[in-house]
Structure formats: C-alpha cells, structure tokens
Please model this.
Amino acid sequence: MGHIVEPGFFASGPVHIALAVGTVIAITSAVVGVFTVTRGQSFAGHSLADIATTGGSGAFLVGVNQFWGYLAFGAGAAAFMEMIGVQRRQGRDVATGVVLGAGLGLAALFLYLGTEYSSTTGASFTILFGSIFVLTASTVPALITSALLALATVVVLARVLLLSSLSPDIAAARGVPVRAVGALFLMALAVSVALSAVIIGAVLSTALLVGPAATALRLVKGPVRAMVTAAGIGVLAVWLGILLAYDSYYWPPAGRGWPVSFFVVTLVVVGYLAADLRPQARRVALPQNADTEQACSPV
Amino acid sequence: MFTGLMLNTWIAATAVAVIAGVTGFFAVLRGSTFAAHAIPNGAFAGAAGATLLGFNPLAGLAVFSVAGALGIAGLSRRARSDVATALTFVMMLGIGALFVSWSTEYAQEAYALLFGEVFGVAQDEVLPIVVLGGVSIAAIVVMFRPLLLSSALPEVAAARGVSARRMELAFLIVMALATSMTVPVVGALLMFSLMIGPAAAARALTARPGLAMTLSVVIALVTVWVGIVVSYQTNWPLGFFVGVAGAVFFLGGRAYAAARRRLAVRVA
Model:
C-alpha cells in the first residue's frame, strides 16, 4: 500500500468495464436525478430500485432472462404507483410505500423459493449491494441501450417536465398533459434505476440518483447547468470510488478489498455536505422548497 | 401451534403489530414513509458493526437507528426531507456494506435481519420487545395531541408554540427505538410493510384520528395473526403475506372510500 494508483489498475479488465459502465450510469442517474429531486420523488426512485431487483430474482425462479424481470417489475411498479396516485404530492409517499411493501414481500418469497431450490444464501446481499467488479462484458450493450433510452426520454421531455414539475397548474393551462408527462418520467426513472440497481446495487443506485443532483442544485442555478454539474459530480465519485476500492485490496483489515459502494456513497454524501455547509451570506434561512426554487430560476 | 416457541412468536408478533399500527399511523399521516423504510433498513449496519466488534447486535441497532433519526432530522433542516432521508439511508447502508465486507460470517445474519426470524423468537427476546413497545406507545400517547396537530396542521401547531422540528425529531426517535427492538424478530422489511399497509388502509377508511389509529392497530393485528397461521401451514415467509396483505387492505380501503363517496353524491 502507499501508492495513489496501485499497480495494474489501468491494465485490469474488470476495472475497464467498471469504469465504462459506472460512467454511463453516473451520467444517466445524474440527469434523471435532477428531475427526481426537483419533483420530490427520491423515495420512488429508491423503491423502484428495490422492486426491480425483486423482479430479477423472480425471473431467475421461472427461468427467464433476468434482464426482462428487472424491466418488467420496474415498469410494473411504476405503473402501479402512477395508478394509485403517486402524481399528487399529497399521499404520494404512502402510495410509494404501499407498492414498496408489496414488492419487498414478493422479494422475501422469491428469495425463499430461490434458496430452497439453489441454496444461494448471498442473494439478498448481492441485491442490496451489487458489485461493479463482477460485471460481464455481455451485459454492457443492453445497459448502455436502455440508459440512452431513459436519457433520451428525459431530454426530449425536459421542458414540459420542468414546467409540470414546478407548477402543474400553469403547465396544465398551457395544454401540457401533466399526468402523461409524469407517467412517462416515472417510466424513464424506472428503467434507468432498474438497470443501475441490478448492476451496482440498490444502495449505490439511490446514492447516484439523489446525491449528485441534490449537490448540483445547491451549487448552480438553472436546470441545464444543474444536469451538467450533477453528471460531473457523479462521474467523479464513481471514478474515485473505483480507484479507492481497487487500492483497498492492499488495505487492512481483511486484505480483500473494501466495497466500491462504500467509497462512492461516502464521496457523494461528503460532497453534498460540503456544498450544503458552504458559507453563504445570501442564504441565511433556506425555504423548504429551496431545490425547486433554484431549478426554477432562468439558465 | 400455540405451544413452546410458537407462543413466543405469537406474543412477540402481537406486540410488534401494536407498535407498528400506532407508529405507522403517524408515519402515514406525516408522510414519513421513506423514513419508516430507511431507519429499520439502515439500522442493520449498526448490527453488522456491533457483531464485528463483539458487542450485542441490539446495541448496534439502537445506536444506528437513533443516529439515522438524528441524521434525517438534521439534514431536513436545510433540504427537502426526501433528499435528506435518501442521503442518510445510503450512508448507513454504505457503512453496513463495509462492515459486512470486513467480517467473514455475517451474510447469513444480514439475511435474518432483513427478513426476520419470526418463528425462532427466544424466550429472553420477548420481554424486551414488550417493554420497548410499551415505552414507545406511552411516548406516543403522551405526545398524541401536539404530534397530531403538528402532523395535520403544521402552521396551526407552530402558532400554538409546538415546534414542528422538535416534533419531527421526537417522532423519528420513537420510531427508531421501536424498530431497533423489532427488527431482529420480524426483520426490517416486514416492519416497514406492517407500519405502512395497515395505517394507509385505516386512513382511507376514516378521517377521524382516534378511530383511524385504532383501525390501523386492528388491521396490523389481523394481518400478522393470519400471516402467522398461513405461513406456519405453507412454510412461505411471513414477510410475503404481510407485504401483500398491506397492499390488499390499502386497495380495499381505497375502493370502499370511493364507493362511499359515489353513494354520498347520489344521495345528495
């Protein structure tokens, strides 16, 4: 130990894949995250991650490709949340919570049935924490395609989405189909979160969705700048996290590496706290919806 | 079904259902469902850490769940509460991942903490659950009126000198203590489903707070009791029945409320 970059970092195949995939996920999550934070749907974002991984274990049970399980459960949960009223701010958390509760119940069943048949006990653990170093190259194209799909949806919708996030009434008055836009966004959120959750774990997926976006909305004004800043913060956190995790194979106590998720989460949270605690005279008392107000101001 | 170990299961599960029904009512009323998910789940990191250092996992659970409550309340002062909750939650789980990677034999126990071991409740686990449940419920009864006011009408409460921030912190700490004892028994996932499903259903059925809280406890009890019987017969995990029953009760409550509204319109 003692090197900043331990030998072999740039030559390692798993590191290449991890860096490539991590970058794609960090950028997608950051851009989708700016809208997620502005709309106050962090809980939905996290729940969709949890539920999508449930779909993975379900697909494993019935012998379908897990990829379809993730997408089906993610999209199904998003539709269900939409149906029972996730769009209204009032009661949205409850609707999300009920869907998440049912999803977790199914997870318990799938894992029980799964362990009964194949006796893999680490399953629940992998679902929560994932592992960016055990990616196989064959999952990369599918991931990148669906990430681009989610990204394209959000970018195309950006203007109407922003308007309907900030003031649904004005948006409706201008003829924006607020509910359809919200539903489409929830679908894009489900797809992007489902895939990142599967690959890097539900914890890291939530961290990359919420952390960089919330930090960026603290630091800069305007939605476009916020998206670019968030993407930068996310990519930086992922790269540094992967580097530290690689280095940590030489660290105590176990000598088999600290988890990537720990490093990335810590970097993201420390970044947020640093941005939050930054001394700033003009913001003495922060209003409750400060995030929204900052996103609202012109670019 | 009512002898020996199963008797412990019945007592513990009943206590847990009452705790969940009462705290869940306020969690749903206040919209703190994300915190209700984050605190029990994140607290598992504390148990992992305590096991690693050779302490009692319960101490780790209690420390981490209270730390989580403080973190959420502290960050919420300057940001939207869903962002504050998400960041506190991922930080706790990130630390948990680190602890688990350090220890060698923890993965199995982690599974138990997430999904619970309701059919393996030991004799000496029953008393702490019942006592702690009693303390949490007593705390909520004492705070009932100001908590209700600040949950339903925060502005009015503030005008009457009830600090919304202090109420939020007090409620989160009660929820943290309630969950830290119940998590090893029923699991973090089940505790969450049991807090949200019945309370959400009760809220859909009635607007009267006292009645809604009672209903929430009753639905939680029925869910758990039926769940235990079915789970005992089929051997399927209790968490599955409780999670699905919560959603079914909620949808049923919503359908009932909608039907009643339609009837009221027709009569008028």
